[in-house]
Specification:
The protein is an all-alpha fold. The chain is 49% helix and 2% strand. It binds a DNA duplex through residues 1, 7, 9, 11-12, 23-26, 44-47, 58-61, 63-65, 68-69, 96-99, 110-112, 114-115, 118-120, 123.
Length: 303
DNA sequence: AACGACCCCAACCGCCGTTAA
DNA sequence: GTTAACGGCGGTTGGGGTCGT
């Protein structure tokens, strides 16, 4: 994998320099060179950095390698249930704003979030025979997938709390509350437990905004089950809250844009309990999406 | 064991906005 | 006002790994 190749898009390099630029996977030596140079000189001015460090890479390549792999604090591995819930919710609101979404997932990069979406979420949409931006798939996520994630988060945190109670005498003082999205403290009350999953995947619409008085029994069931969940979380849930626009993203139609969202539900639940229990950090999850898959829930709903 | 299909993810590509000369 | 350099972002791809036959 040592092929040398020019990179026409790279600016400020001569043809000779471009001809010597390396592409492809980074070697251990290159990583060490880049990490060492950044440690000593800081980030930024990537083209200059690449030359000064003796890396035969473009500045862009160096920047990408640093941000996605070498930067301290970069988390790798499977997304936790909380992270998955945040991704789903934030994507509802912002669409493919990967960098913005990743900004709310400490240690995660936009590339990782993007890959997760494309490999996991879009795969499920494909399996269901619908587009990932379709109303149907969004309904499935919002009414089946996300409640399950919340249930999982609750179950994990409850188990953790039980362990903490048994060791309460040794518990350290609680850390100060962190910003909502960076606080991965889990809900240990009944928020998640009340987030009953919808019972039917066949409903064509499960969002509050579209549940009319003529809604099907399924939809009525969904409405009656989802609303108390949000209300109990104090999230100001409104059935008028979300509407899907043509791009598949949601937009707030009243009040704060975070009002009534899944992520806020998670965040508020986390904050509410920040002083009441020992709570896991982001790094303690380690779950893949194997703990629960859309395949499983889909089969459960159909059977 | 060999092969092909599929999956996942690191890295690349192209575009756009910002900034400084 | 213009332009080049640069950084950032979202889309795309290629190759290694895994799984099934």
């Amino acid at each position: 994998m040592e092929a040398m190749c020019g990179w026409p898009s790279s600016a400020s390099v001569s043809e000779d320099e471009a001809a010597e630029l390396r592409r492809g996977p980074w070697t251990v030596d290159e990583d060490a060179l880049l990490a060492g140079y950044v440690a000593g000189h800081g980030e930024g001015r990537w083209n200059e950095l690449a030359r000064a460090a003796g890396l035969r890479r473009t500045g862009k390549s160096c920047r990408l390698r640093w941000l996605n792999y070498l930067r301290p604090g970069v988390r790798r591995g499977d997304f936790t249930a909380r992270e998955q819930l945040l991704i789903l919710d934030l994507h509802f609101r912002w669409g493919n704003r990967w960098s913005k979404i990743a900004g709310h997932l400490p240690g995660r990069t936009d590339n990782e979030v993007k890959n997760y979406w494309r490999t996991r979420v879009q795969k499920h949409a494909k399996q269901l025979g619908c587009d990932v931006g379709s109303r149907r798939f969004q309904d499935v996520m919002r009414c089946l997938w996300m409640p399950r994630l919340l249930e999982r988060i609750y179950a994990e945190s409850a188990a953790t709390a039980a362990v903490d109670v048994s060791h309460s005498s040794a518990s350290p003082p609680h850390a100060p509350a962190q910003p909502a999205y960076q606080n991965d403290a889990a809900p240990v009350n009944d928020y998640a437990r009340r987030a009953e999953p919808c019972r039917s995947p066949n409903t064509s619409c499960v969002t509050g905004s579209s549940l009319s008085s003529e809604a099907s029994p399924d939809a009525q069931f969904l409405k009656s089950n989802s609303r108390p969940t949000m209300a109990s979380a104090g999230a100001g849930w409104s059935t008028e809250h979300c509407q899907y626009d043509s791009t598949g993203a949601t937009s707030a139609t009243s009040g704060d844009m975070f009002d009534g969202s899944w992520s806020e539900l998670l965040a508020r639940a986390s904050n509410d309990d920040a002083d009441s229990a020992g709570l896991p950090d982001f790094g303690l999850g380690g779950n893949g999406d194997n703990f629960w898959s859309l395949d499983d829930i889909w089969l459960q709903q159909l059977c």
